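re: the backbone from monday

yeah here it is again, tokenized this time
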């Protein structure tokens, strides 16, 4: 099992890529639980790949044992936040993580807007740190964020897989540089070129350039990412070459497609 981080600045196609990654991995796990803070994974439900769960004040009081039984009854579920403040949502995430860590089956946890449940500043439940540092038995996790600098350093440093797109913030870029074994300037979209970029990370059509976003008629139709993992593998991924069966919906409920 492994823990992976998908991160990029707003508008890079992060949530589309996270949904594609999740859909592609569904067959590999007995249970998949998606903590959908911004209501962006509903396409998996509409396509019949997952059931739908609303998390409101009533569900916020469920114990880890309650959530364990819920997960067993709903093996692939998208959990949408409904009128819960930040602390309540952290509590729900912690209880679900505890439930997953107590199960014997393989579980994939997808944590959208991960910086909201494990922020760099302020406290958060120990369960988030336990997931990142200890949950490598039966539990895998996918952490998704557009605010890398606001995600606590512990989960970032414990990731076994990084899938990172473009950034503008120097704070975000510094976090990347401290955790990956390649030239982090490849993520700096304000640059024109990245001298000395390794062959694996160069663009096929443009060479030593930072990752790029592709638009058509004012909408994003694809973007580039850098994949790296603990084994030392590194590569550039172009999401224009990926496709999924489920339709992706943004937070405004408008369908977003990648040709």
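seq for it, each position gets an aa:
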């Amino acid at each position: 099992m492994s823990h992976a981080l998908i991160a990029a600045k707003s508008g890079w196609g992060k949530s589309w890529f996270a949904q594609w990654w999740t859909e592609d991995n569904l067959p590999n796990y007995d249970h998949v639980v998606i903590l959908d803070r911004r209501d962006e994974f509903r396409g998996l439900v509409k396509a019949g790949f997952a059931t739908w769960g609303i998390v409101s004040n009533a569900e916020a009081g469920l114990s880890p044992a309650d959530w364990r039984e819920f997960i067993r009854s709903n093996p692939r579920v998208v959990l949408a936040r409904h009128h819960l403040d930040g602390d309540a949502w952290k509590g729900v995430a912690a209880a679900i993580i505890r439930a997953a860590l107590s199960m014997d089956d393989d579980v994939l946890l997808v944590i959208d807007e991960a910086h909201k449940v494990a922020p760099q500043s302020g406290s958060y439940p120990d369960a988030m740190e336990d997931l990142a540092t200890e949950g490598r038995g039966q539990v895998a996790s996918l952490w998704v964020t557009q605010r890398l600098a606001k995600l606590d350093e512990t989960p970032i440093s414990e990731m076994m897989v990084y899938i990172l797109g473009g950034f503008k913030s120097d704070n975000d870029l510094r976090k990347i540089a401290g955790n990956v074994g390649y030239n982090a300037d490849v993520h700096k979209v304000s640059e024109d070129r990245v001298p000395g970029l390794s062959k694996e990370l160069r663009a096929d059509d443009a060479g030593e350039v930072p990752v790029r976003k592709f638009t058509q008629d004012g909408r994003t139709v694809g973007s580039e990412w850098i994949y790296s993992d603990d084994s030392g593998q590194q590569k550039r991924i172009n999401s224009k070459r990926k496709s999924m069966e489920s339709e992706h919906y943004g937070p405004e409920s408008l369908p977003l497609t990648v040709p």
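The domain at 8-256 is CATH 3.40.50.300 (Rossmann fold). DSSP finds seven helices and twelve strands in the chain.
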